[in-house]
Fold this protein.
Amino acid sequence: FPYFFFFYDNRGRKFTSIRLSTDRSVPGVFDFEIPVFASTGKYSIAAEIGEDLQIGRAEFLVEEFMPDRIRVTVQTPHREYRTGQTVRADVTAKYLFGAPASFHAVSGHLTLEPMEFAPKGWSQYTFSDPNRTFAKMEIDFRDTLLNDTGAHVYTYTLPDKLKAPSALKGLLSATVSEQGGRGVSAYTEVKVHPYS
């Protein structure tokens, strides 16, 4: 039997419809185009049989594509650390036309999780203890503002005793918020050696 998909704009007005039929053994698949002049906002699609019976509904957002206006980098002075050492993450943000993203909000995060220590030339050996486990650590850095040069430094001192099956991978991330609240993120990885 036939049914219809009705598309409603952000003001609740129908702006197009598609007729489908259930006489096939596969779900109906279709494409539709949002008009270029459509306003942004929350739109909806409803599957209806006849005029009174709605059998499904979903919402979606129509937005203008806005490319990132700033570039964010996260760098560390070292790629590898030992327990007890301080990891330093240098965050910088610049507008794509070159000026620093001064005084923008920035947040940082460090994730520590297990990774296999596998040095080159030692592939016949295993550097892991299967009797040890390590629960992933999530460390949030303090939210703050970039300075006048569009930079901020996060530091985190690794605990002296991290017991892991092998090495650890540290994923450092920073998110700088553009004006209006949209965030642009950057990432870098470091290795942490608990047993060196």
The radius of gyration is 26 Å.
